[in-house]
Each structure stands twice: as C-alpha cells, then as structure tokens.
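On clarity, I found the account of how folds are encoded harder to follow than it need be. For illustration, here is how one protein appears when written out as sequence plus structure tokens.
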Amino acid sequence: MEKGDLILIPFPFTDLTGNKTRPTLVLAFGKLDVTVAFVSTQLKWKEETDILLESNEETGLKKNSLIRLSKIATIDKNMALGRLGVISNSLIQKVNENLKAILDLD
C-alpha cells in the first residue's frame, strides 16, 4: 500500500451511524493504520479542494469521481478490502497542494 493507491474500505458515515464500502485514496500509511480520503461519484457536490478522477484502467474506477479531501479518516490497515488502482504523480502533487490549503499549512 502506497500514497496514491485507490483502495476499497468500509468508509464511515459522517454521523458514525454506519458505513459503506467505498473507494478511497491513500494519503498516508504506517505499520498499523492508513489515512484515506473519501472518493465519490457525486460530481455535483464538488468543492474547491476536490479533485476530479477519470474512470480508466489506471484508477480502476467505474465512473468519474471526486477525491473529497475534506473527508478524511484514519483506519486500521486490515480494513482495506483490496486495491483498485493508482493516481498519477501529477494528481498526487495536486492532492498535496490542496491538503496544504485545507489544513492551512505553508
């Protein structure tokens, strides 16, 4: 598992009442945990820091989707259900820039 991988996990609802298996983007990983960003096909909800992902063989996505960088979770690595694909290095750079903006980092 590496930064930029798209994986499937049971992603928690924002109100923590349950979860749904969804694609997520790996932002960081350690020995036990992985920090991921939510990926959604709901393009109409695009926020300024969201990033559009094309559905193709590289990403493994069935539909064009958004990386929702404002929706982040850290979970046990064992919750990962599988790898879908990966994003390009240029998109990883954009993810880094947008995370800096969200977290107000210089």
